[in-house]
Amino acid sequence: xxxxxxxxxxxxxxxxxxxLAQSSGGVINVATIxxxxxxxxxxxxxxxxxxxxxxxxxxxxxxDKDWKVTPLLAASLPEVxxxxxxxxxxxRDGIKFHDGSDMTSEDVVASLKRWMDQASRGKQVAxxxxxxxxxxxxxxxITLKTPYAPLLALLSFNNSAAVIMPSExxxxxxxxxxxTGPYKLKERKPDQYIQLVRNEAYKPLDGAGNGxxxxxxxxxxxxxxxxxxxxxxxxxxxxxxxxxxxxxxxVESYDRIKNIQTSKxxxxxxxxxxxxxxxxxxxxxxxxxxxxxxxxxxxMEDMLAAAFGxxxxxxxxxxxxxxxxxxxxxxxxxxxxxxxxxxxxxxxxKKASYSGAPLRILTSRQYEFHYKMAQVAAEYLKQxxxxxDLQVVDWATLTQRRGDPALWDIYITHSPFLPxxxxxxxxxxxxxxxxxxxARKKAVDAFNTESDAAKRPALWAEVQKxxxxxxxxxxxxxxxxxxxxxxxxxxxxxxxxxxxxNVSVKK
Amino acid sequence: xxxxxLQRLLGMLAVMFVVVTIVFIIVRIAPGDPAxxxxxxxxxxxxxxxxxxxxxLDQPLIVQYGIFFGQLLRGDLGESIxxxxxVLTALAERAEPTFFLxxxxxxxxxxxxxxxxxxxxxxxxxxxxxxxxxxxxxAASIPSFWLGLLLIQFFAVRLGLFPVSGYGxxxxxxxxxxxxxxxxxxxxxxxxSALILRFTRASMLDVLNDDYVRTARSKGMGExxxxxxxxxxxxxxxxxxxxxxxxxxxxxxxxxxxxxxxxPGIGNLVVSAVLRRDYPVIQGALLIVAALYVLINFLIDxxxxxVDPRVRY
Lengths: 507, 313
Hints:
Chain B: Keywords: Cell membrane, Membrane, Transmembrane, Transmembrane helix, Transport. Chain B: It is a multi-pass membrane protein. Chain B: Belongs to the binding-protein-dependent transport system permease family. Chain B: Residues 95-304 form the ABC transmembrane type-1 domain. Chain B: This is ABC-type dipeptide/oligopeptide/nickel transport system, permease component. The complex is a heterodimer of chains A (507) and B (313). Chain A is of the alpha+beta class and 507 residues long. Chain A folds into two domains: 27-228 and 486-505, D-Maltodextrin-Binding Protein, domain 2; 270-480, Dipeptide-binding Protein, domain 3 (Roll). Chain A has helices at 2-15, 17-22, 47-53, 105-118, 120-126, 151-156, 231-240, 254-258, 288-297, 300-308, 342-351, 368-383, 395-401, 438-449, 456-470, and strands at 27-32, 61-63, 69-71, 79-81, 86-90, 129-136, 139-144, 183-189, 193-198, 209-210, 213-214, 222-227, 245-246, 264-278, 314-315, 358-364, 387-393, 410-416, 473-475, 478-485, 489-490, 504-505. In chain A, the strands form five sheets. In chain A, strands 1, 8, 9, 12, 13, 14, 15, 16, 17, 18, 19 and 20 form a twelve-stranded mixed sheet that branches. In chain A, β4 (79-81) and β5 (86-90) form a beta hairpin. Chain B has 313 residues and is mainly α. Chain B folds into two domains: 2-92, no CATH class; 95-264, MetI-like fold, CATH 1.10.3720.10. The longest helix of chain B has 36 residues, at 87-122. Classes of the chains: A alpha+beta (507), B mainly alpha (313). Chains A and B meet through α1, β1, α5, β8 and β12 of A and α2, α3, α5, α7 and α8 of B.
C-alpha cells in the first residue's frame, strides 16, 4: 500500500511541480461535530455554520480579543451622529469578491437588506431601521428610528451573520457562496468534506491578528472541514494524528489527549453557560414564585459535577458573565444561586398554590451534559415537592416543541458567552420562554438604547438583577470547552468559533 | 416460469407502494421540523414558519403526498432541504462507500463463516465445533460500533495502519478511499459472519445425514468430494438466502458503523437526514433501500432456480 501511495504521490509531484514549489502553507483537516445544515450564514444561527463560513464570508465589523467591535470590511468604526440614530460606514478600498468583482456600497446595501429580510438577528434590527442607503461607492448609511446600541455587535457577529456578498448573488436559498474572506469555497461533499482554498487576492488588514479582528492572513493552502459526528471517533482521530484540529471533544478524554505527542488539548476557558429556560407564558412556570422555587431547590454544584465531571471544566458562577468580561456583575445574585434548599422552595410553592401539576422538562441527549443536568435537577425538584415529567427527545424535536407554549415548562440549552448581552435570545419577548414584563421592558430598553459604552455595564447590571428577580431562565454555571490540535499547528487561538487564518503548519 | 417472474415483479411494485406511503406518513407524524433545525437554536417562530411555507411543509398532508407521488412517477425523488442538490444525486454520491462496504463485509463474513460452518458441522460436537459455535455466539452479541471502536483503537491509533474516519479528502484515489473501508468492513464482517456460520452449520448438518451422502460415501467417494460436491451444494440454498438478506441488511443497517467511522454512505445519510428531518432524503433513501431489499430477495429467488432444479414453478 505504502509503495503504491508513494509512487502515486511521486507522480503527482512530477505533474504539478511548479505549483507545489509556489505554495508552502500546507493542508489541514479539521474534524467538526457534523455537517452544517446550510452554508448560508445569514439564515442559520447554528454555531457550526458560523465556524465554517467565517472563513469565506466577512462582515463589516468583527470582534477583537477583548470582544470590542473592530472594523473588518469597513475602513473604520462608523461615524455615529444624530444622538445614536445615524451610522455612516466607510468601506475599505480594493476589496474583491471571490468571483473577481469589486465590493461596492451597492453590494453592502443589498447584503444588509437580505440580512434584515432573512436573518433572525437582521430582523431584530429591521424593525428599527428607517433608511439604508449607499451614499457613494464606498460609503453606506444606516438611519435608525430610535437609538439601538446592539446594532454594531449584530453587524459584527458571525452567527445569523450580516455577511457581505455580491448584489447579484442574493438568491434565497443561497446558490453560490461568494464572499470576500481569506479562503474561498472550492468543493463541498456533504458528510464528507468542505474544501476551502486560499484566496490569493485577499488583502489582510495591517498589523497582527487580534481576536477575530486585525490581520487575517491566509497562510494555509487548504482547510478541509470533515464531519465526524461520533465524539469517540473524533478523539481517536486526534490521537492518531489524522486530524490537525478536532472540535469539541468530551472532557473525559482530556487525560488521554494531554499525555501524547500527536495531539494537545485546546481549552477554551470559559466557553459558555448551560441554561434552564422557563415558559413564562403558560402553565406551571407562568408564576414567578414557582420559577423562583425551581431555582432555590437546585444545586448548581451537583448539576455541573454530573455534567462535566472534572472540576477543571466548570465553575460555579451565578453572574451572567464571568470575570474578565466588562459585563461581569454580582447584581441580584446574592442568596439566589446554588441554594439547594427544598424547604425554602416548598414555602414558595405553597405561596404560589402549586397544584402538583407535572413540571415538563424538555431536554435532549444530543448534548449529553444537558441530559445529565436534567437528571440531577429532577431529583432536587422532587425533593422540593414538584411532580417532574422529564421528556427526553432529539434536538430537532426539542427545537420544534419549544416553539409551542402548550408543550413544555422548562427546556435545557446552552450558549457561549456572547460578546454583546443584547444578543442573548431569552431577553427577547418573541423567543421561546416569552418573557415579558414591565420590569424587563424598562431594564432591557434602557440597556439597548444607551449608546455610551461607558454607561452600558451599569445598565446591564440592572438587567441581570431583573433576571434574578423574575427568573425567566436559570444560569447553571460556567463551563469550558475542550478541543484538540496537532502540535504542528501554530497560531491557533482558543475561540468559541475556531478559525484558521493566521494559522500555519510547522515544517 | 416467465409468469412466475412477472408475478414477482408486480408484487415488488405493490410492496414499494406500501413502503413509500408508510415512510411518507411516519416521517411526517414524527415530531421535529427541518426548518427549526436549519435555522438554528436562536431562530424565531416567525422565521421557522416562513421557511416551512417556502418548503411547502405548511400544506395539508394529502397535498404534500400528492406532490411527492407525482414527482415519484416522473422518476424525481425531490430536492434535499439541506444538501442543496437533488435526492438522487445525494444518493448516488453515497452509493459507492455503501456498495464497497457491503461487498467487503459479505466477503469477509463469507470467508470466515462458510469454511468454519462446514467444518463445524463435519466435526460436530468436537472441540473445534464447540469453540467455533461459542465464538460465533460471541460475535453475534458484539455491538458493531463497539467492535468498530476497538478496531480503531488497535489498527488505526496504535498501529497507524488505517485511517480512523472518513472516506478520503478531495482528490483521493480509489485506493485511498478503499483503505478507509477496511476497518468498518472488518467490524461488520465479523458480526455478520456469526449468523451465516450458524446457518451453514445447521444446513450442513441436515444434509450430512441424508441418504445420498451415505450412498456417496458407500461408493467409496473421497470425503472432500462428498462434503463439497454432494453435501455443501445441497446445503447452499439457506446459506444463499441468509447471505442475501445480510447484504440487504448491510445496505440499510450499516447505519451505526457508518456513523462511527464517519463514512459518507447511505446509512449515514439516512441517520443525518432523520436528525435534520430532511424529508425528501429520508423518503428517497428508504425507497431505494426498500427497492434494493426487494430486488435482492428477487435475485435470491432467481438463484434458487439455478441452484436447485426442483424450484421450478
